[in-house]
């Protein structure tokens, strides 16, 4: 099957509904809505089955992890097949006893598991205690082939690293996709909040420009309280789709759930790369020090 040239996409920006079943039921309604509006690719937010549990360190949270394939991939598979859409989800993966990952899964339009990506960069910041839960990915940066194109899927903290985006581009990705969970500390000043959100969006626009690729980022939205008495996180939404010159194709609100629709013209990457041939002009003979932690 040849991939489409103009691809209708949908990003499901949602609040936590309380538990896995309620979240998956909401996702089912949202996927149906997206497909009804013509979407052929649906991107979900990071760890969409529940609250962002990494605000604290608690061994009980490991009980929510599941294998891949497993119950959630089976549910997403059925949705993908029912509506004829590709779905990109994000799960807490139990790989083995004591071995867990933050993993994106891709279900093709026929319901098959097209592939998965294990989050490579794992943060450890106040309110984002991911190193307690997640082992860094060991699959690498390899796009996943689907009926709508070759998807360069990464997860949240990966979005700050140009190396991952570049490696996906060099492997022939047609677009970059980031399931995301990012937000403000409610105690931050408005100026600081604006700087953080703008930097996040700018990072995606930079990946788009540097690689001549569309970028899709789907974030959760709404306040999630801290289980340990901190101020919690105000997830800022702002899910967006940008084109290969960093231009906005669609952007969601900062404060409410929505299904964000956009059309991605996959032909534009070729056109843009012809006038901005960054891949042609790379000095690969001079980049060896990128493999060092720091140039002392």
Can you walk me through this structure?
It comes from Cognatilysobacter lacus. By secondary structure, the chain is of the alpha/beta class. It has one domain (6-291): Carbon-nitrogen hydrolase (Nitrilase/N-carbamoyl-D-aminoacid amidohydrolase, 4-Layer Sandwich), CATH 3.60.110.10. The chain is 23% helix and 28% strand. A six-stranded mixed beta sheet has the order 5-4-3-2-1-15. Helix 1 runs parallel beside helix 2 and helix 3 (162-170) runs parallel beside helix 4. The longest helix has 22 residues, at 190-211. The relative contact order is 0.16. The mean pLDDT is 97.
Helix count equals 5
Strand content: 25-35%
- Spatial extent as radius of gyration: 18 Å
Q: Superfamily at the CATH H level?
A: Carbon-nitrogen hydrolase
The global form is globular
* Mean pLDDT value: 97
Largest sheet: 6 strands, mixed
Query: How many domains comprise the coordinates?
Result: 1
* CATH architecture name: 4-Layer Sandwich
Provide the succession of SSEs. EHEHEEEEEHEEHEEEEEEH
Q: Briefly, what CATH class? A: Alpha Beta
End-to-end CA span: 51 Å
Structural class: alpha/beta
Total E-strand runs = 15
Strand order of the largest sheet: 5-4-3-2-1-15
- CATH topology, anyone? Nitrilase/N-carbamoyl-D-aminoacid amidohydrolase
- Kindly state the percentage of residues in helix: 10-25%
Oligomer: single chain
Low-confidence stretches: none
Keywords: Hydrolase
Protein name: Carbon-nitrogen hydrolase
Domain CN hydrolase: 7-266
GO molecular function: N-carbamoylputrescine amidase activity
């Amino acid at each position: 099957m040849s991939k489409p040239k103009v691809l209708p996409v949908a990003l499901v920006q949602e609040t936590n509904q309380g538990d896995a079943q309620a979240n998956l039921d909401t996702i089912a309604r949202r996927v149906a809505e997206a497909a009804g509006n013509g979407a052929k690719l649906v991107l979900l937010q990071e760890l969409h089955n529940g609250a962002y549990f990494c605000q604290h360190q608690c061994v009980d949270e490991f009980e929510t992890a599941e294998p891949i394939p497993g119950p959630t991939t089976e549910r997403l598979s059925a949705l993908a097949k029912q509506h004829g859409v590709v779905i990109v989800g994000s799960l807490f993966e139990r790989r083995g006893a004591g071995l867990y990952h933050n993993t994106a899964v891709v279900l093709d339009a026929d319901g098959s598991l097209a592939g998965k990506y294990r989050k490579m960069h794992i943060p450890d910041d106040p309110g984002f205690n991911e190193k307690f839960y997640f082992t860094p990915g060991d699959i690498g940066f390899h796009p996943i082939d689907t009926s709508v194109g070759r998807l360069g899927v990464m997860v949240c903290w990966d979005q700050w690293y140009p190396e991952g985006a570049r490696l996906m581009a060099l492997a022939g990705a047609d677009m970059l996709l980031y399931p995301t969970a990012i937000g403000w500390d409610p105690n931050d000043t408005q100026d600081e909040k604006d700087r953080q959100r703008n930097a996040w969006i700018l990072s995606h626009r930079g990946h788009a420009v540097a690689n001549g690729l569309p970028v899709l980022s789907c974030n959760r939205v709404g306040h999630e309280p801290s289980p340990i008495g901190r101020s919690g996180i105000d997830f800022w939404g702002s899910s967006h789709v940008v084109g290969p010159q960093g231009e906005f194709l669609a952007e969601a609100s900062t404060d409410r759930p929505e299904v964000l629709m956009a059309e991605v013209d996959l032909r534009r990457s070729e056109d843009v790369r012809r006038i901005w041939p960054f891949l042609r002009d790379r000095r690969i003979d001079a980049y060896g020090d990128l493999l060092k932690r720091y140039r002392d």
